[in-house]
Amino acid sequence: MTEALNPIEWKNDALVLLDQTKLPNDIVYEEFTTVESVWDAIVTMKVRGAPAIGVAAAYGVYLAVRNAETDLVEVVQKSAAYLATSRPTAVNLFWALDRMTAVKAPDATYKEALLAEAKAIHKEDEEINRNIGENLLTLLADGMGILTHCNAGALATSKYGTATAPMYLAKEKGWDFKVYADETRPRLQGSTLTALELSRAGIDVTVITDNMAAMVMSQGKVQAVIVGCDRVAANGDTANKIGTLGVSILAKHYNIPFYVAAPTPTIDLNTPTGTQIPIEERHKSEVIEGFGKLTAPADVNVYNPAFDVTPHEHITAIVTEKGIVRAPFSENLEKLFR
Ligand code: MRU
C-alpha cells in the first residue's frame, strides 16, 4: 500500500492541484494563485471529476477577489460567470459557483467568508463520499467482481471518491473482491487514474480496454457495475463519462445491477431529463493523438463527446449520501431534497 494521492489542497494561501494529465507517470503538484490559471486547469483537465471541479472553482472565485480592493461582489459574480464557461456537463461546477455567489458578509469580512465557503464545500465533499460508500456497501458482498468506468475515485473528489468509496471501505473490512477498470477512451481515466489509485491502496484491480467489458461480463466475472456521474436529471437519467451508456446496456443484457454513485450536489432537479443535459465536446486530438502519435489521418473527421446519458431505465439504484434511491426516480429523487 502506498500513500493516497491528494488531488486538491488549499495550502500556503494557494490552490495546490495534482496534475492529473501527467499520471500515472509523474506525480507533479502545481500551485494556482489566479482565477485564470484555475479556469485553465479545469479546461485542460489537470483537475477533473465533477466534485473536484466544483471545489477547484470555488477556490478560483476566492483567488479572483482576494487582491481586489473595490466592487468585491461584482468581481465574485464576474469570476463565477467566467469559471462557468470552463466545462458544461458536471453540474457540481455550477452548484459550487452558486454557493460562492450566494455568500453574504460585510465588506470587512467578505473575503474571509468566501474562503470559508470554499473550504466548507471541500470538506463537505469528503463527508458525502464516505456516506455514499457506506450506503453502496450494503448492496455489495464479499467475493464480488465490480466493474467501473472512468475515474469516480479519490482523484475526482476530496477523498474516497464516489464509485470507489465502497471499494476503500470493503478493503478496510478485509473483503476479498476484484475491480475491473475500463480503460476509458479517449482520455484513459480508468487506466491512468482508477488503476493507479486502487493499486496504490492495495485493491485488486484489473485494467480492461472498453471493448472487453462484454466479454468479461459474459464470463460471469462481474456481479455489480458502479459508476460516478456528472449530472443526474430529475427523472434519473444520468450523464457520465462517454462509454457509460454502453456499459449500462451490457449490464442490462447480462442482468448485472448497475449502480450510480451520486452526491446530492450532482443531482439537478432543474434539468427534467437527460436530453436537456449539455454534453461537452472536446478536441479531436484526444481521439487521434492520445497515444503520443497520430492514430488516424490528421485531417479525418472526429466526433468526441466527453459524456453520454444513461437512461434511468438502465439504472438499478442511484446511491447518494442521504440514501439509496430506486425507481420511480422522479418521485424518489425529489423526496431527497424535501
Ligand atoms: O472528464 P472527466 O474526467 O472530468 O469525467 C469524470 C467522470 O465522468 C466521473 O465519472 C464523474 O465526474 C464523477 S467523479 C466522482
From TrEMBL:
<comment type="function">
    <text>Catalyzes the interconversion of methylthioribose-1-phosphate (MTR-1-P) into methylthioribulose-1-phosphate (MTRu-1-P).</text>
</comment>
<keyword id="KW-0486">Methionine biosynthesis</keyword>
<protein>
    <recommendedName>
        <fullName>Methylthioribose-1-phosphate isomerase</fullName>
        <ecNumber>5.3.1.23</ecNumber>
    </recommendedName>
</protein>
<dbReference type="Pfam" id="PF01008">
    <property type="entry name" value="IF-2B"/>
</dbReference>
<dbReference type="InterPro" id="IPR027363">
    <property type="entry name" value="M1Pi_N"/>
</dbReference>
<dbReference type="GO" id="GO:0046523">
    <property type="term" value="F:S-methyl-5-thioribose-1-phosphate isomerase activity"/>
</dbReference>
<feature type="active site" description="Proton donor">
    <location>
        <position position="230"/>
    </location>
</feature>
<keyword id="KW-0028">Amino-acid biosynthesis</keyword>
<dbReference type="InterPro" id="IPR005251">
    <property type="entry name" value="IF-M1Pi"/>
</dbReference>
<feature type="binding site">
    <location>
        <position position="189"/>
    </location>
    <ligand>
        <name>substrate</name>
    </ligand>
</feature>
<dbReference type="InterPro" id="IPR000649">
    <property type="entry name" value="IF-2B-related"/>
</dbReference>
<feature type="binding site">
    <location>
        <begin position="48"/>
        <end position="50"/>
    </location>
    <ligand>
        <name>substrate</name>
    </ligand>
</feature>
<comment type="pathway">
    <text>Amino-acid biosynthesis; L-methionine biosynthesis via salvage pathway; L-methionine from S-methyl-5-thio-alpha-D-ribose 1-phosphate: step 1/6.</text>
</comment>
<feature type="site" description="Transition state stabilizer">
    <location>
        <position position="150"/>
    </location>
</feature>
<feature type="binding site">
    <location>
        <begin position="240"/>
        <end position="241"/>
    </location>
    <ligand>
        <name>substrate</name>
    </ligand>
</feature>
<dbReference type="InterPro" id="IPR037171">
    <property type="entry name" value="NagB/RpiA_transferase-like"/>
</dbReference>
<dbReference type="InterPro" id="IPR011559">
    <property type="entry name" value="Initiation_fac_2B_a/b/d"/>
</dbReference>
<dbReference type="InterPro" id="IPR042529">
    <property type="entry name" value="IF_2B-like_C"/>
</dbReference>
<feature type="binding site">
    <location>
        <position position="87"/>
    </location>
    <ligand>
        <name>substrate</name>
    </ligand>
</feature>
<comment type="similarity">
    <text>Belongs to the EIF-2B alpha/beta/delta subunits family. MtnA subfamily.</text>
</comment>
<dbReference type="GO" id="GO:0019509">
    <property type="term" value="P:L-methionine salvage from methylthioadenosine"/>
</dbReference>
<keyword id="KW-0413">Isomerase</keyword>
